[in-house]
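Worked example 2:
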Amino acid sequence: MPSRKINAYLVTGGRFHDMDFARLEILKLLAERHHIRTKTGNDYRDVDGIAASDFLITYTCDLQPTPEETKKLRDYVAGGGRWFALHGTNSVLRILSDGSCSCPTDVAPEFFELLGTQFMAHPPIGPYRVEIADPNHPMTKGIEPFDTIDELYLSKPLADFHVLMQTRFAGEAPGFVDALHWTGDDPRPVLYSRKFGKGEVLYFTLGHCRGHYDLQPLADFNPIIERCSWTQPIYYELLRRGISWAEGAG
């Protein structure tokens, strides 16, 4: 245990996900480490508080900082900050009149470049195999390939990053107008690290969750509570490792 208090900042907010569930589960994992004290926010408005923290964790969807907030986030990471970004943090969504979804690439480009990717689409929630791309990293050492049921993120690379876990996909992502067909069965990053200045971003795409009321205003009631990888012990192990990484281990 470190000899000093570690200050964390958790941002959970946005659309179409059960942010209450994700927030609670992440806070419980942070609380396992008695030396960590966590501030929380629903957006990036308290960017000065984020910059004063030892590390940042985000679980968001369609939530982008302002240009001024983006600059401070970039300075924070470049100065040595660590950012553990989860699931939809790299997304921007525009729901069109026909119900389809567009992911415009001209929104917050410096924010997504800092993250290293921008979400473009996903096929319907279903099973897929997660492969270990780098078995020697602290996040993946001793982890075997595993199967999960989740949203398989198809993202546009925007910067150099180091892939730690990946999956493969070729096919269609119905409902996303910017990426109707993905070919080649190419590796799709599931977990990667991105160096930025003196700091680093760790991006983990797994962990979709949705409750009964999280599709409003598109639908008043979602009949199925979706927990995806949150039902698996391996996901919690990787979240714990991510928090350890964010503290400075590895």
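The longest strand covers residues 187-196. Residues 6-247 form a domain with the Rossmann fold fold (CATH 3.40.50.880).
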